[in-house]
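Continuing the batch. This is chain 6 of the set; chains 1 through 5 are on the previous pages. Same settings as before, nothing changed between runs. Recording input and output for traceability.
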Amino acid sequence: GWKAPDNIVHPVAAGLSLWQIYQGLKELKQFGLINELTTRMHAAQTLACDPVVQAWNRGEPFKIIPVESKKSIAETLCVGDPSNGYNVLEVLKASNGSAISATEDEIMEGMDLVAQKTNWKTGPVGGVVVASAKKLVARGIIKPYEQTVLVLTDGYRGDKTYRGSFSEEDSRHRRISIEPDRNIIKA
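Output for chain 6:
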């Protein structure tokens, strides 16, 4: 009874994990664990350093032009020449996905939104993902009724700082389900 989500919004620095997640979904289909693979992959980057988004927006043939990273609160995403960038672009194309970047203010708003709606907090990378997902919904690329997974790679409980140390219990993957709230998305 497994089903892949309709969308996955994933942060992109070098790009390896987005590509790996999609490869894993393809293997689930190959081995019959899911009936179909219609998941759309969406790459999220900070506007301060978004070479994959820029290449996606220019269209095919894709050419990643290395960028000099500007300062960003989401510093770990600031990879100006992503080693797996072309793999990410292939996945976005194959999955009918997209690429989008978030401003510094949007990143902070994304972080705040997670804190408001859950008992978890996310760091700047998660803020990029949440802000990007919000923009994708506002643009109609992701529909509010679709099952969408946001990959928040720097989450923590409210009593921890995102640079703090984590116990084994804290570091395990957590699923946080949130019901749609039309008041969050502004066109």
